[in-house]
Amino acid sequence: MPLPTKEYAVTAIRQSYAVLQHEKNLSPENMQVTHSLTHLVRTLTQSHAPEVSSYLLQTPDLCSEREHLPGLCGLAECQMEKYWAKKLLMQKSTSLEEFWYHSEYCELCNAEASLLQGRTFDRISFLGAGSLPITAFLLARSLPKTQKVICVDNDEEACDLSQQLVRKLDLGQHIDVRCQDARHYVPAENELVICASLLQGHNDVYKQLKTHSCDLMVRNAEGVYQFLYKPAVLPTSGFSEVARTKLDFKRINTTHYFEQEGRTSGDAD
Ligand SMILES: C[S@@+](CC[C@H](N)C(=O)[O-])C[C@H]1O[C@@H](n2cnc3c(N)ncnc32)[C@H](O)[C@@H]1O
Description:
Blueprint: H1 6-22, H2 31-45, H3 50-58, H4 63-90, H5 102-115, E1 123-127, H6 134-141, E2 148-153, H7 156-168, E3 175-179, E4 191-195, H8 202-209, E5 214-220, E6 239-244, E7 254-260
Parallel strand pairs: 1-2, 1-4, 2-3, 4-5
Antiparallel strand pairs: 5-7, 6-7
Helix pairs in contact: 1-2, 1-4, 4-7, 5-6
The structure holds S-adenosylmethionine.
């Protein structure tokens, strides 16, 4: 299939913005929203040719879309996770692979694992984990028996759904769900904290984390994916970036790995 031209990509971005702006129900129950977002994500994923991506990011014609589309996509993503969590809970045997973005999350988690370079942690937390914390599920399946992942979210319904999924997937031994604002989250000694791409209040989160002993992964949006997510606010003090994943059409987010300044890091090989 030929790659999208810049005109084709501009039309997809504009149409999605028009649909999401107009529709009240941004959940996948609304077929117009689902079609529009599926088309947008597919088009952006294929718009990696430098002349197309730099045009999309620089043209003043897409200023409003660049400013406002990520907020609408974020709302739609939260709705999509709730919809899928409920759908998976209703199934007799829960099959995470059915989730539309499952392979994308697998790619992202594999890329993030490669940033660890042999470092090990006593605990992992996932801030802004949502109703369907696929990252935590994927991590939990590969952890030694005693290790925990803490999923933090301040949305009660999201926490309730993810808690039910944890039980259904028999991952209670590995995953704790905490309903709280990530800004007040206190990590354990030698913890890896992962900040989800839709986390709010990054700076307050970093301020709190830097007084504890942890390393940090921050999910970001670069290139044309900035029509889907606002770029993340990255820490400017207390942590140093030591690695990052590359922008890749197989995964939407990029991830930055930060070591805490002055901390002797987890056992690197
Ligand atoms: C769509 S979701 C989950 C992200 C996704 N599962 C991922 O892997 O990146 C984003 C979630 O972040 C939560 N969230 C945003 N800011 C937060 C904060 N400061 N504290 C706790 N939860 C937060 C929202 O309630 C929402 O459920």
